[in-house]
Write a structure and sequence with these properties.
Number of helices: 4
Pfam families: DUF5807
Oligomer: single chain
Distance between the termini: 16 Å
Helix content: 10-25%
Order of helices and strands: HEHEEHHEEEEE
InterPro entries: DUF5807 (IPR043830)
Structural class: alpha+beta
Strand order of the largest sheet: 2-3-1-6-7-8
Largest sheet: 6 strands, antiparallel
Number of domains: 1
Length: about 140
């Protein structure tokens, strides 16, 4: 299992998964050395502290500010954390998706009792910010 597959399975809670759309960063090729090329972009998977700094440097967006704004609105993010459906329109494209996994926590209850949860925060090309979360199957 690759590190990315382990993250998507909820097994790497200390890592952050970042999707950067090709058209949203000025030098996506330079990031390829640090990540994985996927359709329409680059995925970076790295330690949380390092990832927050890299995300802000690459996007100009504070990831915690993105999360706070995005949590106010529900959207849909694919389980591979590289595509999303904007609540404002079907023809929109995610510029950035910032995701992390949270371990199962029966004491908290709700969906957290059912298994690891992936949280994803999106900055869309239309300007919308939205989020999604789901229990890893």
């Amino acid at each position: 299992m690759s590190d990315r597959e382990a993250f998507l399975a909820g097994e790497r809670p200390s890592d952050i998964h970042i999707f950067l759309h090709d058209e949203s960063v000025s030098n996506a090729e330079a990031l390829e050395a640090h990540g994985e090329r996927v359709e329409n972009g680059i995925v970076l998977l790295m330690d949380g502290d390092q990832a927050r700094g890299i995300f802000q440097q690459a996007t100009g967006i504070d990831p915690m500010a993105l999360a706070q704004e995005a949590m106010k609105r529900d959207g849909t993010v694919s389980e591979d954390c590289i595509t999303a459906a904007c609540p404002d329109g079907d023809d929109h494209t995610p510029k950035f998706i910032f995701s992390f996994a949270e371990e199962q926590n029966e004491e908290v209850g709700g969906i957290y009792a059912d298994g690891p949860v992936i949280h994803a925060y999106v900055a869309c090309d239309c300007g919308a910010r939205y989020s999604d979360k789901w229990v890893v199957e």
